[in-house]
Design a protein that fits this description.
The complex is a heterodimer of chains A (326) and B (327). Helices cover 38% and strands 20% of the residues of chain A. Chain A has two domains: 182 residues, Rossmann fold, CATH 3.40.50.970; 129 residues, 3-Layer(aba) Sandwich (Rossmann fold), CATH 3.40.50.920. The longest helix of chain A is centred in the first third of the chain and has 15 residues. With 326 residues, chain A is α/β, with parallel strands linked by helices. Chain B has one domain: Rossmann fold (3-Layer(aba) Sandwich), CATH 3.40.50.970. Chain B contains eleven helices and seven strands. In chain B, β2, α6 and β3 form a beta-alpha-beta unit. The longest helix of chain B is centred in the first third of the chain and has 26 residues. Chain B is globular. The chains are: A alpha/beta (326), B alpha/beta (327). The interface between A and B is large, with 42 and 45 residues.
Amino acid sequence: MRELTYLEAVREAMSQEMRQNEDVFILGEDIGVYGGAFGVTRNMIEEFGPERIRNTPISEAAISGTAVGAALTGMRPILELQFSDFITIAMDNMVNQAAKIRYMYGGKGKVPMVLRTPAGSGTGAAAQHSQSLEAWMTHVPGLKVVQPSTAYDAKGLLKAAMDDDNPVIFYEHKLCYKTSSEVPEELYSIPLGKADIKREGKDVTIVATAIMVHKSLEAAEALEKEGISAEVIDPRTLVPLDTDTIIQSVKKTSRLVVVHEAVKRGGFGGEIASTIAESEAFDYLDAPIKRLGGKAVPIPYNPELEKSAIPSVNEIVAAVKETLNR
Amino acid sequence: MTQVKNLPPNVKETDLTNLLKQMWQIRFFEEKVDEFFAKGMIHGTTHLAVGQEASAVGAIAVLEDRDKITSTHRGHGHCIAKGAEVNRMMAELFGRTTGYCKGKGGSMHIADVDKGNLGANGIVGGGFAIATGAALTSKMKNEGFVVLCFFGDGASNEGSFHEAINLASIWKLPVVFICENNQYGMSGPVKEMMNVEDVAKRAEAYGIPGAVVDGNNIFDVMNGVGQAVDRARNGEGPSIVEAKTYRWKGHSKSDAKKYRTREEEQEWRAKDPIRHLRDVMIAEGLLTEEAADEIKAAAKKEIEDSVEFSKASPMPTIDDLMEDIYA
């Protein structure tokens, strides 16, 4: 099968969907001729024109609210935010409007929109362009939160997000954009709420998200050389969360390490750890659950400092060994 | 009466009768809610628009059924003017399942999406971009409807005002931003919160028309909003219409109104918008004193009936709690 990069997979999903559904359009800053801050919408304006690849002013508050209003009245907008950090400016519309409308209107009205946005560090863009704020959004009932790690997943999950009748936040990790995998030509859907076991193993379960999936797979290979068999699970969607797959894996391996790039304090790793602590898998644990996350520091500019602010492959290896030596 | 020469040509005598009735419905609805709050029969908070009836009714009167509105936290009047059933509105304030939001939204979130009321909003300035987005749908799907975005003088100092109106103006979207300038953003007088006298003057910054109308004169409101709606429907883009008016009550139920004088309140009460419409209709021979009294009595009875309807309606059960979070 042919390979696509993650970035191309996102673009292909949108293009194929837009060909078959006239209600879908994209709005965002510099997404037209420029092709988007990371090039995701490159050349799309040539096929779909400026009405559907809708370049906006630098107005995150307005374009997020415009997406809400358009979705509420029958369109299916995809909103591209240049950097996920800017979600702070769109926060009112996502948290107070999009997430609440259906419930506070007593089940009338729906807001089928996708907010796509690049997240994470590793590009040297420093504190205001490198954050991982997904835990914020998982805290808000009414939103769904997706975090694909591979090109295959990105295409299938984006299709599911575009088909969903609810507001979906779709986090694309900047360092994933250039990774590639086999991606079918046709449009396919990966259901939201279905985790993927990226690697089977029997000694320890590693639950990792976004770029940390790749780092955890690397760690798993290193561990294998030492005779340690790690299972790596990518939840793929944080809301809804596939708790069953994680619980079953922990029951099998009896050990859990959770890894994400976002700051550990208040991060989603705490949610996964608690889910296991509250489940029947707790009785199977042979060691305390280990969480690895970003340090509680704004992402620094200096490349070495930047790297040291988030979990490394070595730290994942060390964390696994620590749980095995208990 | 000189005002009648401003009457939009498409408004018939029967329409005016209905508009008078709607204004009375709003007045009685608000007075009843005020009373029940005082008695502790309705909880939460509410924001009343007594004295502002002409801007809600006049602005919506020039719309077609297919047109849409976004409303504010002070939205009961807009809701009634857009054709909502007062029974279901009152039931919502009582938290009953027969309410517009099944008792989950309350005063600040009443919506009737099917009838084009895209909802009241608890966030000041929350409606600007939603209205812009709805207008974008109208344009992209070529559906021809116009969106009326109600907002207050206070909301015009929110960033969302600038962003959404700028966006609507560059895309020439069919939306009319109607400011109900009731002189105060909560306790903040307009003159202390902005350095221009008229919100409408801000339209200049977006290259769109801005008009000031007498918000207590329903004909003036209909005229100003009517022109802006025509312009929007013709593809000429958005406008701002500012209706100068006054809320007779405080901001919400806890407001002692220390920031304004009794004299000021009396001055505005003398400009009662309902009285104005009634007097004009009688002077023009469109209405008798008796007929006017009947309209008022009928509106009052509908509100009384809505209370009975609400009291007789069921409360939600715990099973309803987790419903309707996701579509």
